[in-house]
Every structure is written in structure tokens, then in C-alpha cells.
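C-alpha cells incoming
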């Protein structure tokens, strides 16, 4: 059964929603929270081992590759900036879901001002442990 839900998220999800791994939007929120808190273990636990991440024109082809390359910079960036989530769209079919997010990021990173508008596609797969991230694609432009 396919379902479609369009959400407009102005505030961070309540703690009860974030703690439930059964909801793809909650898993995405948990992932971003883990990055912002610098919690690499929590962030990596939400990624499938074979996750593929597209970021800044490059490809991380696995969870291990992401851990070794972009994860530290992504956590530092998330800690140094504020992310304001705008429109979120969620679709799912069977054991797959995708969360499409528009967001604005502001702050200062590496002594440079940041004001960007970005889009994010996160594809999740339902596993016995709950929803896990199979693919991330980030793209942004100046605000």
C-alpha cells in the first residue's frame, strides 16, 4: 500500500516522535540530531552498511567510507550552524520510504558565514531493527 503525506515542519519533532524508529521522518530527525550533537555512533547506527551518500559532488559508497571521510566534517558543520526545516514530504511503498526536505542553514563555519537553502533526499529501508537510511543526497545553494 502506497501512502503520501505532506508535512510542513516548523519545529523540531517532539521527543516521543524522535525516539520511535518506526517513523521515517523521526529517523531522519534522529540522524540530524546525532550530527548536531557530534554523536557519530548514533548517526552511524541509523545508516545501512551499504548506504550511498551524495554530497558536494562526491560519493561515499558505504557507512565505513562515510565514517572515514565526510562524517567528521558533517558533524562539525552541524554543530556550528542552525538548520531550519521548511517543507517535508514523505512517501513510502512496501519496505521503502523517502523523505524529501527543504531547509535553510545559517551560522558560521570555519570563520565563514553560512546562509544556504538546501534540499535533501533520504531513502530508508524497513529492517527488523526499524527504518534505516539507505541513501542520502544533499544539495544546497546560497540563501
Amino acid at each position: 500500500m502506497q501512502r503520501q503525506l505532506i508535512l510542513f515542519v516548523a519545529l523540531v519533532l517532539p521527543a516521543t516522535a524522535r525516539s520511535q524508529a518506526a517513523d521515517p521522518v523521526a529517523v531522519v530527525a534522529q540522524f540530524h540530531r546525532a550530527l548536531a550533537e557530534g554523536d557519530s555512533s548514533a548517526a552511524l547506527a541509523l545508516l545501512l552498511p551499504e548506504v550511498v551518500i551524495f554530497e558536494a559532488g562526491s560519493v561515499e559508497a558505504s557507512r565505513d567510507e562515510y565514517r572515514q571521510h565526510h562524517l567528521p566534517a558533517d558533524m562539525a558543520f552541524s554543530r556550528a550552524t542552525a538548520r531550519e526545516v521548511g517543507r517535508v514530504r514523505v512517501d513510502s511503498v512496501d519496505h521503502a520510504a523517502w523523505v524529501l526536505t527543504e531547509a535553510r542553514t545559517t551560522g558560521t563555519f570555519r570563520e565563514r558565514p553560512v546562509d544556504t537553502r538546501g534540499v535533501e533526499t533520504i531513502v530508508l529501508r524497513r529492517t527488523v531493527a526499524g527504518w534505516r537510511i539507505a541513501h542520502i543526497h544533499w544539495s544546497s545553494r546560497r540563501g
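note: The chain has one domain: 3-142.
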